[in-house]
Design goal:
single chain; about 250 residues; alpha/beta; two-stranded antiparallel sheet; 6 helices; about 35% helix; about 15% strand; globular
């Protein structure tokens, strides 16, 4: 349902932001890195990245990595008005448009404008309308044309409540486990043609689904995980790293 009143949008956005803070403050967040330097809260290595994760887990990222020089690609549809308000309240920049309709131009303009601040991008590649966990080719096109690495974020909650929506949007239970397994940097070759974009679209989709399944299994099990670290919200490097990073690649 589209809300027309800007005042009402701001009010709903403020209540949603408060809800996200209250619920998320009760959760047990853990992460297992392939390479911790990809974390936008990690000391800056001077590299822009495109973070992608499934739409159903958007709450995880907007809470944990607020005020970390991140810009979120949001649909022009009215359904995204409240999400844009919440994102701004949590310290995200917002870019309206899809990767197929106006988003590429908007992202290019934003990157030129914010170049000195090293903004990263975040995209839910199955949004805004699905199908669920099917990767749209836009993020592959952007990564290829702009030569920015992708970071694939597998997220899982412990027995979440799920809405009866196209994405089966997941809401963690208070006090439950939340787990994340991000990939390392994934580079896509420059100037891919249509066939190349589809090839990497399928490869990236498969890896993102595998990371998501692994994170969900980890959250459900409650086991101590290889390379497990605590992770806290905010722009500071608030992670505790254990052992050596794992290795991950997109096979040719």
């Amino acid at each position: 349902m589209k809300i027309q009143s800007k005042t009402l949008i701001h009010a709903v956005g403020a209540l949603t932001t408060l809800y996200v803070h209250l619920l998320s403050s009760t959760l047990d967040f853990r992460v297992a890195y392939y390479d911790p330097i990809i974390d936008p809260a990690y000391p800056n290595d001077g590299k822009r990245r495109i973070y992608i994760f499934w739409h159903e887990y958007i709450q995880y990222f907007i809470y944990l990595r607020k005020r970390c020089h991140l810009a979120m690609l949001l649909s022009k549809h009215g359904d995204a008005d409240i999400l844009e308000d919440v994102a701004h309240m949590l310290g995200f920049d917002g870019v309206r448009g899809s990767t197929n309709r106006g988003g590429v131009k908007a992202l290019r303009e934003m990157m030129r404008k914010e170049e000195s601040e090293n903004f990263h991008l975040t995209i839910t590649p199955d949004g805004p309308r699905g199908p669920r966990r099917v990767l749209a080719p836009g993020c592959i096109y952007l990564a290829s044309r702009l030569q920015i690495p992708l970071v694939l974020m597998g997220v899982g909650y412990d027995r979440p409540f799920r809405f009866n929506s196209w994405d089966r949007y997941a809401v963690p239970r208070p006090g439950s486990r939340v787990r994340c397994i991000p990939s390392g940097d994934v580079m896509v070759p420059p100037d891919l043609d249509k066939e190349g974009i589809e090839y990497y679209r399928q490869k990236v989709q498969d890896v993102l689904n595998a990371l998501s399944d692994e994170a969900e299994d980890w959250a459900m099990s409650g086991d101590f995980y290889d390379n497990e670290s605590n992770v806290l919200p905010g722009p500071d490097c608030s992670c505790m790293y254990f052992s050596k990073p794992r290795q991950a690649t997109i096979e040719e």
